[in-house]
Design goal:
It is a single chain. With 416 residues, the chain is α+β, with helices and mostly antiparallel strands. Among the domains are: 114-280, Sulfite Oxidase, Chain A, domain 2, CATH 3.90.420; 292-413, Sandwich (Immunoglobulin-like). The protein is 16% helix and 29% strand. The chain contains eight helices and 23 strands. It has helices spanning 6-24, 29-38, 129-133, 151-155, 163-167, 180-187, 212-217, 381-388, and strands at 78-80, 99-101, 114-119, 125-128, 138-145, 170-179, 195-200, 207-211, 220-225, 228-229, 239-241, 254-260, 275-276, 282-283, 292-297, 308-317, 323-329, 337-338, 340-341, 351-359, 364-372, 401-404, 410-413. The strands form six sheets. A five-stranded mixed β-sheet has the order 4-3-12-7-8. Strands 5, 6, 9, 10 and 11 form a five-stranded antiparallel β-sheet that branches. Strand 22 (401-404) and strand 23 form a beta hairpin.
């Protein structure tokens, strides 16, 4: 064995750390796109009926011709967006559901994870994951949307924006867990309790204040996602799920709930997650996500191959209930037609809409706008700018769309 000096050890450790830091740097969106474009196309046999197929496997995989991916990647503090333009139906596959982190993804042992509920309750209690999973489970489908979704298309719309870049901070999931109302009954929430604090187990100790009424209404504590345990980046082993509320409030890696009489005014609801307005004030407690829609096909970077009939398809949702109507325009908003809402149309969940369009080869601008069951209609970007100003930082639900050139090439259109 060769003897190593302390200096040698320190130098080696520094090199390893430096390499790890460089390896962990996030790759740019452009770099990821260039790498994908340079990858060789998979080769299939000319006649697959003449060759024996592959064997069974422990975990299934996608076809090598299908490669949806979040972008950007490598962010410890930041986000990674859902590839909306590459998905069908309404359920977002767990492995491409958007991410938003403030201190990276923690590693948590479910056998040691506990949820404490205390404060203005009759019986403060500690629940293990086994305790929670022995309670009657519920399975419900809801969307989650980051309150910063659509910032790029609002602040600085550019022709190369895709549905992923223009609105990909949302995902729609079949969640499994227990109702928070059931746990409220277990601990005996006192009548004077009007707010609760939800605390996460990540390195930033995410904390948000939530009205107790929301907890009684439809809040869930979830441990399952699309038929399997939560993915770590989605809060494994336990997250709070507040249907229709901005995503940051559905605290991941949930470890503590405290009941009280007033909001806690944490850093995440004072320095963050408030909406600056042109008059120098800010919107606070803007919980619900407003009605929103986005056309996912045809869209950038696709090119239409010729004249004729093309399906216009997209997603619509509202944090205040069901989407009741989606209208589509192919002439930049001069005329609107009702799209078909594809069943099932669920409350506070993504709804797929479709509309058949006959393209005649001339320039077209494709737009969509949603109406929810409260009568609220998705606004234009111009209307939102007038009310909120360009400096607002959250809740961007403006109309956006796609310009189709005479040669079929599609680019983002955000000047509505």
């Amino acid at each position: 064995m060769t003897d190593l000096s302390r200096r040698d050890l320190l130098a080696g450790a520094a090199a390893l750390v430096g390499g790890a830091v460089l390896a962990g740097l996030p790759e740019s969106v452009e770099g990821q796109a260039a790498k994908a474009a340079a990858a060789p196309r998979p080769v299939a046999p000319p006649d697959p009926t003449k060759l024996q197929g592959g064997p069974t496997s422990a975990v299934g995989s996608r076809s090598p011709y299908v490669t949806p991916a979040r972008t950007p990647t490598g962010e410890t503090v930041g986000n990674s967006l859902t590839p909306l333009q590459e998905l069908s139906g309404t359920i977002t596959p767990s492995d491409v559901h958007f991410e938003r982190h403030h201190a990276g993804v923690p590693s948590i042992d479910p056998l040691r994870h506990e949820l404490v509920i205390h404060g203005l309750v009759e019986r403060p209690m500690v629940f293990t994951m086994e305790d929670l999973q022995r309670l009657p489970p519920v399975t419900r489908t809801y969307f989650i949307e980051c309150s910063g979704n659509g910032r790029a298309s609002y602040r600085d719309p550019k022709p190369d924006l895709t549905p992923q870049k223009a609105g990909g901070l949302t995902g729609n999931t079949e969640w499994t867990g227990v109702t928070l109302a059931q746990l409220f009954r277990e601990v005996g929430v006192k009548p004077e309790a009007e707010w609760f604090l939800a605390e996460g187990g990540d390195a930033c100790v995410m904390t948000r204040s939530v009205p107790v009424a929301k907890g009684w209404e439809d809040a869930l504590l979830v441990y399952g996602q699309n038929g399997e345990p939560l993915r770590p980046e989605q809060g494994y082993p336990l997250r709070l799920l507040l249907p229709g509320y901005e995503g940051n409030m559905s605290v991941k890696w949930l470890r503590r709930i405290e009941l009280g009489t007033a909001p806690w005014m944490t850093r995440w609801e004072t320095s963050k997650y408030t909406d600056p307005l042109p008059n120098g004030t800010a919107r606070a407690w803007s919980f619900a996500m407003d009605a929103m829609s986005i056309i996912t096909a045809p869209a950038t970077p696709r090119k239409l191959s010729g004249k004729g009939w093309w399906p216009i398809s997209g997603l619509a949702w509202s944090g205040r209930g069901k989407v009741t109507r989606v209208e589509v325009s192919t002439d930049g908003g001069k005329r609107w037609q009702d799209a078909e809402l594809v069943a099932p149309v669920l409350s506070k969940a993504h709804t797929r809409f479709t509309h058949m369009w006959e393209w005649n080869g001339t320039e077209a601008v494709l737009l969509s706008r949603a109406t929810d069951e409260t009568g609220y209609v998705q606004p234009t970007r111009t209307a939102l700018l007038e009310v909120r100003g360009k400096g607002t930082d959250f809740h961007f639900n403006h109309v956006r769309g796609w310009r189709v050139a005479p040669d079929g090439q599609i680019s983002f259109y955000g000047e509505t």
